[in-house]
Write a structure and sequence with these properties.
Blueprint lengths: L2 E14 L3 H8 L8 E14 L3 E5 L6 H8 L7 E6 L2 E2 L5 H8 L2 E4 L13 H13 L5 H14 L16 H13 L5 E5 L7 H18 L2 E6 L2 H7 L2 E6 L2 E7 H6 L4 H9 L39 H5 L5 E4 L2 E3 L13
Parallel strand pairs: 3-8, 3-9, 6-7, 7-8
Antiparallel strand pairs: 1-2, 1-4, 4-5, 9-10, 10-12, 11-12
Length: 340
């Protein structure tokens, strides 16, 4: 299949200054304190085919939302390339990005914070279309498309004249989806789109997104920490830890036979009603290392129960592990160390 999104060697660094006392010392000229660097995303390479759903999962702070915002060019990447439908957008300015944004749109985690509280729904949904056409679109055409999109996401014409505060959380997310669809994108970047919703509403929004994928041929980069959501919507899954992708595989392959110890720990920690579906628990101890000071070698070695000398000396890279999977783990070479 043709790649709609290609990410190669993506890195995102953030410079942070010292604390208040460090700043005071600098101002007095006594000491020069260098900026500290947060290594948020570290060499991520992924592809999303046209019409495919790639779920990017991991615990809070692993860098998955930073990947989403960098791909959407909310952040400018520190290094690496981002190609949308073959076009490298990693170095484009905001004006040059405008036509590219017609191909990709974003759905945000908080459906209320992402909507302008002073705009009516009809204006919120119409705004991206007006930006793309620089206001040249006929008023009747914009109004007709706005109402059609609202109807398609489960709202109706009377909702068009209301404000965001007059809707429930699920309805607000439907408005966000309608806004994203207004410019006929081919790629949707969904950053935790259902995590702020009740479970029953989550199912409705996920089913809507699946229906829209089939209807419009959309590709999704779907960011989530919820493995039940992943199992419901994803075609492939990439697992992140501390800014690195440690495993990538087709959904069914990953859930049936996870290879990386971190992936196995995630799946074993997920609740399961059916006792037969429960995974053998892997105990992970300690805290996640700071992104200000990455550990040497494998990023997971400080918490991995199977870590050995090579894990500290050499950082593993993603490589083929069979069945369409890629894994970054030295246990592929030393399977006997992987105790049950």
């Amino acid at each position: 299949m043709t790649a709609m999104l290609e990410i190669e060697g993506l890195e995102q660094r953030f410079h942070v200054g010292g604390g208040i006392f460090e700043r005071m010392r600098v101002e007095k000229g006594r000491l020069r304190i260098p900026d500290r660097i947060v290594h948020a995303v570290n060499g991520v390479s992924l592809k999303v085919a046209a019409g495919e759903v790639l779920a990017l999962v991991g615990e809070s702070g692993c860098g998955k939302s930073t990947v989403a915002k960098t791909v959407a060019r909310i952040y400018k990447p520190t290094a690496g390339t981002i190609r949308i439908d073959g076009t490298d957008i990693s170095g484009l300015g905001q004006r040059a990005l405008l036509p590219v944004r017609a191909k990709m749109q974003m759905i945000f985690q908080d459906p209320y914070a992402s909507l302008n509280p002073r705009q009516k729904v009809r204006d919120i949904v119409a705004e991206p279309l007006l930006q793309q056409t620089r206001g040249r679109a006929a008023r009747a055409e914009v109004a007709g498309r706005t109402l059609a999109l609202l109807e398609r996401v489960g709202l109706n014409a009377e909702h068009a004249n209301r404000y965001p505060h007059q809707f429930s959380g699920g309805q607000r997310q439907r408005i966000g989806i309608a806004r994203a669809l207004s410019v006929n994108p081919r790629l949707i970047i969904a950053d935790e789109p259902v995590s702020a919703l009740d479970v029953s509403i989550q199912a409705q929004i996920l089913n809507l997104m699946k229906d829209l994928r089939d209807e419009f041929g959309l590709a999704y980069l779907f960011i989530t920490h919820d493995l039940s959501v992943v199992h419901h919507i994803a075609d492939r899954v990439a697992v992140m830890y501390l800014g690195f992708v440690v495993e990538e595989a087709p959904r069914d392959t990953l859930f049936a036979a996870p290879r990386h110890p971190y992936t196995r720990a995630l799946l074993s920690a997920a609740p399961a009603i059916d006792p037969a579906a429960r995974k053998d628990e892997i105990e992970v101890t300690g805290e996640v290392p700071s992104a200000l000071d990455l550990p040497s070698g494998c990023c997971f070695r400080t918490r991995c129960p199977f870590a050995w000398e090579r894990c500290a000396a050499e950082r593993p890279v993603l490589r083929d592990a069979g069945d369409g999977a890629r894994v970054a783990c030295h246990l592929l070479d030393e399977p006997q160390r992987d105790a049950p």
